[in-house]
Amino acid sequence: MPGVRVECRSEYTYPQRPVALWFDQNRVTVAEAEHESRTPRGKLFRVRLEDGRRFELLYEELTDEWSVREIA
């Protein structure tokens, strides 16, 4: 999803937990991390934002990039 950045908490590893998504200049807080797992490509999170939208976030470790996809 172009124009979206992931803000995350990183105390002992990156990424530890997503805390917000940025849509251009608008920050929307993550209300709940519904699921977290590791894939062959990196860490996968399913999150629900404060505004009710849900997203799947994949941190691709080899490229140091996030893939963001809105889900129902």
Explain what the structure shows.
It is a single chain. The protein starts with a strand and ends with a strand. It has strands at 4-9, 17-23, 26-38, 42-49, 54-60, 65-71. The protein has one domain (4-71). Strand 4 and strand 5 form a beta hairpin. It has no helices and 6 strands. 0% of the residues lie in helices and 67% in strands. The relative contact order is 0.21. A 6-stranded antiparallel beta sheet has the order 1-2-3-4-5-6, with no helix packed on it. By secondary structure, the protein is mostly beta strands. The radius of gyration is 11 Å and the shape is globular.
List keywords for this structure.
single chain, 72 residues, mainly beta, 6-stranded antiparallel beta sheet, 6 strands, 0% helix
Task: Summarize, please.
With 72 residues, the protein is an all-beta fold. The protein contains no helices and 6 strands.
